[in-house]
Structure formats: structure tokens, C-alpha cells
Specification:
alpha+beta, Beta-Lactamase, 4 domains, PAS, Transcriptional regulator PpsR
């Protein structure tokens, strides 16, 4: 039934009735006008003719396709699509759209979407009509780039938010974020909940100030009003209704997009008696160490300085502790690479070293004789070492006592002058001095042969050979420990 005022829509009339039979030139012009690329193929898939709908495509591809297999003009990854298109043209008069890419003369790949039409019969020529998808591909790439940029921004904002929330929770000060128009709490950190005697989740959504006495409430409201109007205000004192503790309340204005928030900080005010209370034992202990007349240095397991007191800084001629922090201690101590290694080896074995004599070199060339004691602290996290350094440069030294062995050796040397050639006396004296130096090094390092070898500048094997040669016998306790540690060398 026809509706009044509307015309009846008739079915689509076949093109043969409307257009009739087109001649060859009209058909060719129609194809060239409708398609960006038109390719004529023979039954074997060889390119016979090519027509381009724009000068840009003609410049990109030129006439290199003619006489070539059409499959050779597309990239390898899209060749299966073109093979499927040609197979489908074998049994259908017109195929579906399939996308391939051609490499242009500029070296870029241009996407083309083709639809094929076979003329006359199954063995007749094929005409492929193509649409240039460069514009669509560019839009798709822009969409992908925009999506990736959004994802990067999203994850960056997530990381910033995570750091903010972690800092907000870990900060020791009580902080509240308040919505400026309604003056209700939006966020509160754990410190604020502990200070106000409530869980942070229970504070959120409640009006602020709440729970303060009348004077404090008026003062806080005045502070918040001033901050909303001028962006800043003077800190005020406040006190809870049921508490004797007093707070210092500070506020600042925070704008985010079109919303305004108030950042409120609550700081406990110590009473005068608490402020004047003496420091605890550990604080007094640290203060004494900082002011001690002897130098104190604490290093990590690698001998790098973690902290040092002012006495050490004066000895090393350093202005601030920051200049020493992170530096190796042997930069200033004794012989670089020797004395500190000897000390560390003994500390790892015995945990303490006492009265180790060496030198301390200042930054400006001053050399100070020092006496060093050290202790190792075994921590659950990582070990560290403490070094106590005493200036002995002005100490009155008594002459070291001459041992009977040294006296006897000097007497024997004097008696043999004139009886034995000088060359032989020098050789025997060299051997005796070498043996005395080895004994002194072993005594200095507590009979630790590895440390003694490092102190003397010898290899361990050379030191072991010389000890056996001179028949030097170490202390039984340390010799047994050394033998247990190095069974292959003793």
C-alpha cells in the first residue's frame, strides 16, 4: 500500500539496461577514472598494461611492471594475498578485495587494495583495479602513534601517582588534603590518623576541623579562609578537645584542573620541658665520638668511608665530611693498597686490631705518624669497620731495646772483619737483615703470612720459601690457624 506524500522506491535497475553496451574507449576511460591502479594481465599472470590514476603513483612505479609476472611486483609477505586473488579470478568473474604492498622507486612500500575481473572466459585476460591505501595507512599509523603516546602518558602518570602515594604514606608529618569549597577531608596519611586518634579511612569525608576545642576551631577556620582568599596564611596553634598536646597547623592552596584543595600540615609542638630534656644515651655517645680528640672513621666492607669525625678531617686536611664519604680510606692511610689490606685481613679474622703504627697523608702533603686501632662489626645487613686514629707524631719515643740476638750478630760481624772477604760479609748481613724484617712483619701482622707477604711486597710463595730457608717459627696458635686456612701452601 502506498503512503500518501511518498514516492515508491523501485528495485535497482541492472547496469546493462541503463548504460547499454559501452565501447572499448569509454570502458578504458571509466576504468582509469575509477581506479588508482589498473593492471591488465594475460592468462599466465603476466602484466600486459598498467594505468595509474595519479602522477605520484606513475613516478613511484613507472613502466617496469610490463612484461613481468605480477607476483614479482609485490613484497614477499603479501604475495600469498595476490596468489589467492588470481586463484579466485579463475572461477569467479569478480573477486573480493585483497591488500598487497608494492616497493616503489624511493624504497618505500605502498599498500594497494585490488579487486580482479576476468573477461570473456576462464582463459581470458584479467583486469585488476587497485585503490591506493597510503592515506588510510598514514591515518592508521597516526592512530597507533597516538594510542602509544596515550599509553606512555598513562603509565608515566601511574608511576608518578605511585611515588606520590608512597611518599604521602611514608612521610612522618601529618598531612590532610581538604576540598576547599566543602572543607571536607579528601585524603589523609597514616601519620595524620595517628595524630588525630582515628584511622585514615575514617577521617576521609568528614568536615575539618573536627575534634578541636572552640578557640582552635575558630583559629583553623580563619587560617583556611585566609588561604582560600590569598593563597597563604600564618600558622596557628590548635589543641584537641580531649588532649593536652598542642599542634602547629599550616595550610597552603593546591589547584588541580578546575578544583581547589587545601594542603594542611599538623606538627606537634614540644613542651618546654621536653625541648630542654637531656639527650638520650646514644645521642650523648655519638656527640662524644664526634668531639673525640682521636680520629674516628667508619667504612664499609670494601674500605670506603661511610662517616668520619672532625678530628680525622683535620688530620686528612679535608674541609667537609662530604669530601671523604665514599672514598677509600687508603687514599690517606699509609702505603696505598698495603696497610689497609693488612688491616682488613686481620679484622676479618680476629675482628680487632690494636696499636697498628703507620702514617696518615694529608691532602696538602702533610704526613702524620699515627697509631691505629680497629674493630669489625658483624651486622645482619652488611659488615662495617670502625678505625680509631691517634696522632703520635709529638709522642716522646724511647729507643727500642736491643735484643741479645741483634747484639750477638753485631759482635760477630765486627770480629769477622778482616778475616772474611767483604763480599761474603755483605751477603751474610743481607740474609740476617732479611730474616729480621720477615720476623718483624710476622709479629706486626699477628703471624698472618698472607698479610705479612703483602706488607713486605713479596708473593706468598716467596715468603714461604724464605721462612723455610731461615727456619722462622711462628706463634703456635697463629701457625695452626694459617695451616688450617692454607693447607696446600704450608
Amino acid at each position: 500500500m502506498a503512503v500518501e506524500g511518498l514516492e515508491r522506491v523501485s528495485p535497482f535497475t541492472p547496469m546493462t539496461e541503463r548504460l547499454g553496451v559501452l565501447d572499448a574507449s569509454t570502458t578504458a576511460a571509466l576504468i582509469e577514472g575509477l581506479a588508482d591502479v589498473a593492471v591488465t594481465l594475460d592468462a599466465a599472470g603476466m602484466v600486459q598494461e598498467v594505468a595509474f590514476g595519479s602522477d605520484d603513483l606513475r613516478a613511484d612505479f613507472g613502466g617496469d611492471w610490463i612484461g613481468q609476472p605480477w607476483l614479482a611486483t609485490v613484497s614477499l609477505d603479501t604475495r600469498p594475498n595476490l596468489e589467492a586473488l588470481l586463484d579466485e579470478a579463475g572461477y569467479q568473474s569478480i573477486t573480493r578485495w585483497r591488500q598487497v604492498t608494492h616497493r616503489s622507486a624511493r624504497g618505500i612500500e605502498i599498500p594497494i587494495q585490488y579487486r580482479a575481473l576476468r573477461l570473456r572466459n576462464a582463459h581470458g585476460p584479467i583486469i585488476a583495479l587497485g585503490r591506493n591505501l597510503q592515506g588510510l595507512a598514514a591515518l592508521q599509523q597516526q592512530l597507533i602513534d597516538a594510542q602509544q603516546a596515550l599509553e606512555r602518558d598513562y603509565w608515566r602518570f601511574r608511576q608518578v601517582e605511585t611515588r606520590y602515594r608512597l611518599l604521602f604514606r611514608m612521610v612522618a608529618e601529618a598531612i590532610l588534603i581538604i576540598d576547599a569549597p566543602t572543607q571536607r577531608v579528601v585524603e589523609a596519611n597514616p601519620a595524620a590518623g595517628q595524630l588525630l586518634g582515628e584511622a585514615p579511612t575514617r577521617i576521609i569525608g568528614r568536615p575539618f576541623p573536627e575534634g578541636f576545642d572552640t578557640d582552635s576551631t575558630q583559629a583553623i577556620n580563619g587560617l583556611l579562609a585566609g588561604v582560600r582568599a590569598a593563597g597563604r596564611g600564618d600558622d596557628v596553634r590548635a589543641r584537641l578537645v580531649d588532649g593536652a598536646e598542642e599542634f602547629l597547623v599550616a595550610a597552603s592552596l593546591l589547584r588541580q584542573e578546575n578544583a581547589a584543595f587545601l594542603l594542611v600540615r599538623l606538627s606537634p609542638i614540644l613542651s618546654e620541658s621536653a625541648a630542654n630534656a637531656p639527650p638520650d644515651v646514644k645521642a650523648r655517645y655519638l656527640h662524644v665520638l664526634e668531639q673525640a680528640p682521636d680520629g674516628l672513621v667508619i667504612t664499609d666492607a670494601d674500605g670506603r668511608i661511610l662517616t668520619a669525625n672532625s678530628t680525622f678531617l683535620n688530620l686528612a686536611e679535608i674541609a667537609t665530611e662530604q669530601q671523604a664519604r665514599g672514598e677509600p680510606l687508603d687514599r690517606w692511610l699509609g702505603r696505598p693498597g698495603v696497610d689497609l689490606n693488612v688491616l682488613m685481613a686481620n679484622l676479618r679474622q680476629d675482628t680487632t686490631v690494636r696499636l697498628f703504627a703507620t702514617l696518615l697523608r694529608g691532602e696538602y702533603g702533610t704526613i702524620t705518624e699515627i697509631e691505629l686501632s680497629a674493630a669489625a662489626v658483624r651486622s645482619s645487613e652488611r659488615p662495617y669497620f670502625g678505625f680509631f686514629i691517634r696522632d703520635i707524631g709529638r709522642r716522646l719515643h724511647s729507643e727500642p731495646p736491643t735484643t741479645p740476638e741483634q747484639t750477638r750478630w753485631l759482635d760477630q760481624l765486627t770480629e769477622r772483619v778482616g778475616r772474611v772477604p767483604l763480599k761474603e760479609l755483605v751477603r751474610e748481613s743481607t740474609d740476617t737483615i732479611e730474616r729480621l724484617c720477615i720476623e718483624a712483619a710476622l709479629k706486626l701482622t699477628g703471624d698472618n703470612r698472607a698479610s705479612a707477604a703483602e706488607l713486605l711486597g713479596l708473593s706468598r710463595q716467596s715468603l714461604y720459601v724464605k721462612i723455610d730457608r731461615y727456619g722462622i717459627v711462628a706463634d703456635h696458635h697463629h701457625a695452626a690457624a694459617t695451616a688450617a686456612e692454607e693447607p696446600s701452601k704450608t
